[in-house]
Write the structure tokens for this entry.
Amino acid sequence: MWKLYDELIEAIPAGIKISDIAQTSRWTFVANNKTIGTAMKFNSSNQPLEQYQSIQLQEAAALIKSWDFQKASFGLATINSFFNEREKVSKNFIPERIHYRDAFDQLLTEPNQKKIGMIGHFPFIDRYPELRKQISIFELEPRKGDYPASACEYLLPQMELVYITGSTLINKTLPRLLELSENATTVLVGSSCPLSVGLFNHGIDTLASTLYEDSLTELQAKKSAGGLPLSKYGHSIMIEKGKGQKI
């Protein structure tokens, strides 16, 4: 079950250190000398992270395997600070398969008759009530019309297209969700998603995440000037698996 996690951790070379850390009520941010990674938090409290300042990226990344989800969020943000970099993405993926747009755009612009499942209640869906009726949403804290997370075991195998929040890496449910979705097209989506080509070997067809190209100091300055959350100052990116591509 840990193979996917170990591959992400082991892909990070020695010698790269964390340069900055920030937290909001919903997100953990980790910076190295090149870029920023982020990951969702499972509660709004801020855990002391000062002890991780300037440690090796690979050491911090190993916290993704922690059952303390605050630490696991920090571990995933660290992993994303390595993988989610424009230059690295351009080098590791087929250029024609890289799209700088939101993963959900296709749902809004193209009719889709497939059975669609969504792991996580993404806020945008509530703005489109007709689209909402077509999607089976599975949620740890279900709202009206959602299925509880436990329904995945029974209903996910029936789906043809499944969107899975990247935060499932934090609570360790992703490997099982991919098993249940093995007959569907799968999209790992959200700012918590690592842009690692190796994830294509685990049953994921599309990676959809966020690239940050400012320092944390610059992001915080933009937040002060613009008033939007830190997480809103990144750039959407979607990467599709190439036909027959295996790394």
Observations:
- The CA atoms of residues 104 and 110 lie 10 Å apart.
- The radius of gyration is 17 Å.
